[in-house]
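Re: [ENG-882] Designed sequences occasionally contain unexpected residues at chain ends

Forwarding the minimal case from QA. Structure tokens:
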């Protein structure tokens, strides 16, 4: 692949990602970016977790996770659960409001992606899906 082509592809991907993030953020009623939403999703899927565990799972530093956790707690989207036997052990747990925020995030995400893909034909969507699956398989095979 020519270097010019790969840079055009990278630029197009970055443009699409940035545009989708801007559209999502504008529509989402909570003052949050994508990272805290990923944390909410992990808490919903796996239940209460320590911040260190969450940081490792989502790939953030401990400092970034502390900031995200504080923001989520302040917004009432997660709560801190203290271990009765060891008060140093604190787990984050998604609240009912956090569950609601996650539902809204998924609805907005679907809408943003539907708007993105509405310019493609059925055949182009199938091609794109095959390409994405090939890329995902390539990433997973390198792990």
């Amino acid at each position: 692949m020519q270097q010019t082509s790969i840079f055009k592809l990278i630029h197009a991907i970055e443009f699409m990602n940035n545009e989708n993030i801007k559209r999502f953020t504008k529509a989402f009623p909570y003052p949050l970016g994508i990272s805290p939403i990923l944390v909410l999703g992990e808490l919903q899927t796996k239940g209460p977790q320590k911040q260190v565990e969450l940081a490792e799972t989502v790939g953030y530093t401990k400092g970034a996770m502390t900031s995200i956790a504080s923001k989520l707690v302040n917004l009432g989207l997660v709560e801190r659960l203290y271990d009765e036997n060891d008060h140093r052990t604190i787990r984050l747990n998604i609240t009912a409001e956090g569950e609601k925020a996650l539902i809204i995030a998924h609805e907005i995400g679907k809408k943003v992606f539907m708007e993105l893909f509405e310019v493609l034909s059925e055949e182009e969507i199938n091609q794109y899906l095959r390409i994405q699956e090939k890329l995902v398989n390539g990433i997973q095979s390198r792990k």
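QA comment: On inspection the terminal residues look reasonable. The mean pLDDT is 93. Proposing we downgrade this to a documentation issue.
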